[in-house]
DNA sequence: TCCAGATCTTGATCTACATCAACGTGCTTT
DNA sequence: AAAGCACGTTGATGTAGATCAAGATCTGGA
């Protein structure tokens, strides 16, 4: 149950067995069925979620009802509405499952206690944030400087597994394209 | 000299006078003239820089020579090529000054020692990263879901001072627009 | 089994924004 | 004071990608 997350953590910080137990003891295991919400707009996000199985997405819904995907997550990734989680404000994103999934969730108050009891966790979450920050920065620069086709090619180069698992129109939404445009890009690419 | 940065820090963590001294003792004060580089593509970023005066920008240059602005920074903000800094790889961004500026720079090895000696700094930089992360996420969602005009209106709403200080074509570059398009958007807005 | 919805594709048309080009103004540098 | 940039504006035209519409598969639920 905890193998994946402990392995994930051990890449960044070293824990004693006691500390590892301290950590896993506050994790809550949850199963999320396909199309089921992990978080809905308006709720306050209580948890940081580590995905142990399946695939989820975080997305906003605009005034016209259009969905815009902020991030995907698969096994070994974290997913949450970080802003809601950090500031205790209502979430602006929905998170739901694209496949039957399982997550390990840590509650905010538990995480804060953990920071105090095992200071290394400050370091861990700082590193995770750094990586996420850098990924976001690349995504921004891509979106302001690349064509739709270039962005899609970068996407499949960086996330080849996601391209296989996720419906095409969800990827279009992630890239800020219409499904039709992505379909045409793929058709052109197939010829090359 | 250190008033601004100590005030900035005190919003997030509480330091003893000794810890504050420990911190300021590793800061390096630098003056950067308008158009002068703080960091150039290819160099490894050695510093995190806190701006005490002036205005800087971080930007990439694409194959066609086009500049794409990753971020602006003014007094009270941090600026760096975080990826280069964290991974000791050559920077992919230039940072230069849009006005005569001054920064306080902390070197990577000093920061790492600081994390050990004063663990609260882990917390500080985690919080700073969280804020930056959230800002980036909003920018991504804006760029994939809003029109050019909407993005510009959001920009001036969020950064009214930047809109005053920064040349218009730099803002266009930040938003991923051409200077002509931004000029036309502003003309339309003026009528409203 | 059958129906409804989800997904993807293809074509026709539209439009937001880019590109190209010219010009005015006000700094900076000498 | 002159020359040269940097910066912004405006107009004409081009194009990437959106929108609208229709149809083909496929899938899951009653």
UniProtKB/TrEMBL annotation, chains A, B:
Pfam families: cNMP_binding (PF00027). SUPFAM superfamilies: cAMP-binding domain-like. It comes from Chryseolinea lacunae. It comes from the Bacteria. Residues 15-114 form the Cyclic nucleotide-binding domain. This is Crp/Fnr family transcriptional regulator.
């Amino acid at each position: 149950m905890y193998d994946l997350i402990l392995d994930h953590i051990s890449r960044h910080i070293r824990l004693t067995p006691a500390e590892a137990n301290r950590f896993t003891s506050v994790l809550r295991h949850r199963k999320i069925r396909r199309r089921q919400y992990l978080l809905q707009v308006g709720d306050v996000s209580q948890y940081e979620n580590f995905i142990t199985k399946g695939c989820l997405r975080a997305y906003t819904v605009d005034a016209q009802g259009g969905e815009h995907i902020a991030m995907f997550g698969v096994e070994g990734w974290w997913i949450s509405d970080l802003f809601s989680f950090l500031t205790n404000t209502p979430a602006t994103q929905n998170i739901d499952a694209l496949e039957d999934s399982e997550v390990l969730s840590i509650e905010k108050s538990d995480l804060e206690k953990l920071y105090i009891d095992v200071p290394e966790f400050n370091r861990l979450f700082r590193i995770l944030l750094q990586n996420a920050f850098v990924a976001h920065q690349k995504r921004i620069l891509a979106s302001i400087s690349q064509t739709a086709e270039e962005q899609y090619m970068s996407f499949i180069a960086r996330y080849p597994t996601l391209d296989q698992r996720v419906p095409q129109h969800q990827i279009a939404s992630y890239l800020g394209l219409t499904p039709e445009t992505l379909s045409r890009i793929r058709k052109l690419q197939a010829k090359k």
